[in-house]
Fold this protein.
Amino acid sequence: MKKSYYITTPIYYVTDAPHIGHLYTTVAADILSHYHRLIGEDVWFLTGTDEHGQKCEKRAKETGETPQALADRVVERYKVAWHRYGIRYSDFIRTTEERHKKVVTTYIQQLMKTGDVYLAEYEGLYCVPCETYWTETQAVEGKCADCGRPVERLKEESYFFKMSAYEKPLLEHLERHPNFIFPESRRNEVLGFIRQGLKDISISRTTIQWGIPMPKDPKATKDHKVYVWFDALTNYLAALGPLESDAKYGKYWPNAIHLVGKDILRFHAVYWPTFLMALGLPLPKQIVAHGWLTDSNRKISKSLGNAIDPLALADEVGVDGMRYFLFREFVFGLDGEYTKEIMYQRINSDLANDYGNCISRVCSMILKYCGDQSVNIQELIKPASEPKQTVGEVIPVFHNEMQNYGFQRALEAVWKIISSVNRYIDSSAPWTLAKSGTPEDQLKLKQVLFQCHEALRVASIFLLPFIPTSARKALTTLGAFESVTGEAPLLQNVGWGQGPAEVQIKKPEPLFPRLELKK
Ligand code: MSP
């Protein structure tokens, strides 16, 4: 049976159109899901939108729409952007959908029954943009401990979730599963937070209209809506149809990986697991936190006014250029400073010069020097060579990095192959071999060219998750695409000598046009 793999992105607020930060998380999930499909796993990839709560209610007031109309309009912007970037999600969930609301209501009812959710009075400091309560000691000089904006004093009747009861079980879980939170630095942060003690948290709001109603309760004197984070986090389960015992739930939930930005790690690594424990449900397998894209060292975000539109970037540098840049330039897990100069430089030097030129160089030479001959590639690539050795070294490194979110190092490894090909061409000078009429040199010529061809075939298959369209084009030019069926397990094709014996090389077209940065 195929191993299953469930990958999720956060669900995005519909307050505004997507920006480069949202793109970053979503492309990361797409790369991972593509990779896992290529190694033959059964992948379910979920993304979606977070449509309830104060943020959306407030934004709808500003735009003069109903919150539902705002959500309906903005969700399309997300779908258009993801389509443009070739994001192959399996499902897109919106928290205003019935399937989602039903699961949230059922779970809250269950928690009220078990006493994990109870009614009491709350007094605290509240941050509106973050929809988070802080105690006097948590708030930093009257400001939100997360975003630094001023907090308001609020007193209200509220439902609470007994998070305190799950402090010990959560710590035990983290100890028993050292990889539950990735990377380790973030795990330590979360451990530090839990060790300060978990308090019960408010799980309802009376200050908003736009949310899922709390179940009817004669004890309540006010109209309560479910806290937006309980609502939002539940999407990961709701999409799998957990109440109907949908086959998807059994198959994917045990293998759930949540990809999140570091700003929302606490909700995923503390709140979510304790909700699940209270519900008696298994926890996800792993929570992976990445860093932020920054602009002059500040997080890029709509509210800070420095958001960058993914569609404009796609027009400017191409979808694959952008996908490559984001995961080659920045270390996943750390913050990364975004600048146009670095982006142009990276795309031009790695994609246009190194990879694009190399494909074109090798294919042109094969067409020119042995275009009309039939050859047996597998025979020609048997002897030892630098590209052959490099491919052998890179394969385990690449897989290991991909399994550990080391996208940057995985790509660096692939570039070792490309550099080895370029060096091998220069040192063995096929153009000189071609001039010689001796049978030895003619054989050597074919060996050199097809060793390069084989190395580029392997490199291009490794690049499929990152730059799907260009890598496919490259494989088509190399005549090696037939072995790549897109969904089929490809691992067996990704080794030296695992390709076809004969290929039909196509006339190379430029894969990546050189970009000019306009001042
Ligand atoms: N709706 C919540 C998530 C609920 S998940 C159950 C939310 N939405 S969001 O639209 O504000 O952002 C979602 C994701 O985008 C987060 O993972 C966040 O880290 C990411 N990014 C937003 N700006 C970012 C950068 N500048 N850089 C990288 N990622 C950033 O939070």
